[in-house]
């Protein structure tokens, strides 16, 4: 901090968190991704940023403990990983508009990397479709961490996908 003429400390920088700070960082990151991948849709750009983010790098809103999924969203954007991601999720504007709950839509049906169901009781299932943006055939195997007492399955658990091809996945949480 600098010192003013009257001897008081003057803050020359500060640390802020939350949506007002993450939004410009996300927008700038998306702009860089668009420059690298000009044919990708906005949903594909969003999914690459979200799926490559580090969920273990953030503190909670009190800055005293590690963030939980409700504090962090996808996690800390990692622009060293996002441009090299192999799979993306695409979604259309029309599907986003149709998923609006105010008109009877269901956001859980959107093809995006997040899977939320606030009314889940027992078993919940989501269907997602990934598209390969890799330059060669690639084999993927699902890996995940779940809280104690929860089981998660992904079908198919392992798949090989060609560049530009789609693969449907069924994710079930119990």
Relative strand content: 15-25%
Strands of the widest sheet, in order across it, are 3-4-8-6
The structural class is alpha+beta
Biggest sheet architecture: 4 strands, antiparallel
Order of helices and strands: EEHHHEHEEEEE
Short description:
By secondary structure, this protein is an alpha+beta fold. The protein has helices at about 20-35, 40-50, 70, 95-100; strands at about 1-5, 10, 85-90, 125-130, 140, 150-155, 160, 165-174.
General description of the model:
With 174 residues, this protein is α+β, with helices and mostly antiparallel strands. It has 4 helices and 8 strands; from the N terminus they run E-E-H-H-H-E-H-E-E-E-E-E. It has helices at 19-36, 42-51, 69-72, 93-98, and strands at residues 2-3, 9-10, 87-89, 124-132, 138-141, 152-155, 158-161, 166-173. The strands form 3 sheets. A 4-stranded antiparallel beta sheet has the order 3-4-8-6. The N and C termini lie far apart (52 Å). The mean pLDDT is 87.
Descriptive key words:
174 residues; alpha+beta; 4-stranded antiparallel beta sheet; two-stranded antiparallel ribbon; 4 helices; 8 strands; globular
Topology of this protein?
Blueprint: E1 2-3, E2 9-10, H1 19-36, H2 42-51, H3 69-72, E3 87-89, H4 93-98, E4 124-132, E5 138-141, E6 152-155, E7 158-161, E8 166-173
Antiparallel strand pairs: 1-2, 3-4, 4-8, 5-7, 6-8
Helix pairs in contact: 1-2
